[in-house]
Design a protein that fits this description.
Four copies of one chain form a homotetramer.
Chain A: E1 2-7, H1 13-27, E2 31-36, E3 50-56, H2 64-72, E4 84-91, H3 98-111, E5 115-117, E6 128-130, H4 135-156
Helix pairs in contact in A: 1-4
């Protein structure tokens, strides 16, 4: 079982969140690859049981570089069914479009027939940082990694 | 393992969809209760592994009667974590707010920490009918029932 | 020209935001009525050039009490075309569904054929507070009131 | 006063809708430029009072090529405030993510502080075609062009 955490990041904030989520996954003893989105070949998506994508909040929707990979993934439409999807974002301000950015990624995963999960305690749609991730966001990202890893084990483990 | 299919319906279209989804669930040998939303006591939500809610498309958001139950469910916040959620809607026209109505229900389930799933082939966010459900929508509702039932078995079965 | 600011509030946070937005409107010399949502008769909606609704963030969607008025407004469907709509929310935490709550209101206004407006500097979809509105949110609410009032004057003034 | 209608299109369906919307605008005696998205220089956006963007429905979000221009437009953040925005989409099936694709464009425009408008009669968030635009969609696109043109005249005319 393997999970891919992929991100687009200019300031490093989204990258930092990605690293923490990847660490959380590994703490649950699931192999995790961490890649900048331009380093992901669309064929690789098939190799993972879970995909977690993170984008800065640009105009309330995932970054173009990430949407490009999503659009290219139509080549494998139908082959990602039943995989687990997650999303996170780094935003400039509260109410700045971070929730809709996360949801834009989750909606894309749903169109692929993937499974997504909310959170009753942490940020509900996925981890969201305002500016540089602080201690609280650190903890949220680790826990989000744990959670997705546990769900992958539950669904794909025997 | 039990699934609740609950609906609000004035014309009978959403109710018809609910009946078909319930039938699909039962065909997978999962017990399914089918209830009009006003007949659901909020405490009952705890008894199910899966919750599937359907609302007519009223102003692009689930009906007030359904939101009322969702708001009351705060009483059990944290106790629905990990359950499976699904949603469907009956709409007056294509592009009439049906997708956002379905998503309004799924977002509420995500805030509860529940698991939701998209579809790569059928309507992506959940079954959606325009007016009276036709043969195609019949098939989609049955398949949606199958799918949610299979996911409940995978996650909650041993 | 008149604007209605209506809100649902249990803790008083959303009410406080409503009062500030109403103050901002009045500072632009536009008459503003401020009403708790249950005090609004659906027929009154016709009397205003602008409608600004605020709800606490409950499960990522406007409160049931507000959706009830929206559902009842179908009685006047077509008569709100071209009016100005705005929305705001008070939420428990950042990433807690506040953006989707605001958008649920704006989507309802769009289904009515109304005009809505974003903000390039303040919170993009509408004012959003986390917990008790602080000084920064105070300023945002006042500015939002100004902005909607100015737009009403531009479209409905002669 | 000028409006830009821009689109991304592979099959020609979204392009056909763009042409009809442009025709509707011209019938209201407003100058309209019609451009494929890759032909739009980001600096040009400043020259228009209205921007109407159309994308195929790819994974429930505007196409990467369109998001690229939106991301680049950050260069002019704050300079599009108060302009009118519109959106449309061509989708493969009803419930296929067309509404969320339109909303992804409108949300981007709102982050720019732009004004958007729904429709009480036609498709509520913006014109949406399933496959090749039929006669009904033709009429909707023309009317949408009329409507945006009239709003531009109301707000920017003297």
């Amino acid at each position: 079982m393997k999970i891919l955490v992929s991100y687009y990041s200019r300031t490093g904030n989204t990258k930092k969140m990605a690293e923490l989520i990847a660490q959380g996954i590994q703490e649950e003893n699931i192999t995790c690859d961490l890649k900048e989105i331009s380093q992901v070949n669309v064929d690789e998506l098939l190799n993972y049981e879970g995909l977690i994508f993170g984008s800065p909040t640009y105009y309330g929707v995932m970054a173009a570089e990430m949407k490009k990979l999503v659009d290219d993934s139509v080549k494998h439409h139908g082959k990602l069914i039943g995989k687990i999807g997650g999303a996170f974002s780094s935003s400039g301000m509260m109410g700045g479009g971070g929730e809709t950015t996360i949801l834009s990624i989750l909606q894309a995963f749903m169109v692929h027939g993937m499974i997504v999960v909310g959170d009753a305690v942490l940020q509900h749609y996925g981890p969201l940082a305002i500016g540089e991730p602080d201690e609280e966001v650190h903890g949220m990202c680790l826990k989000y990694g744990h959670k997705i890893a546990v769900l992958v084990k539950k669904i794909f483990g025997k």
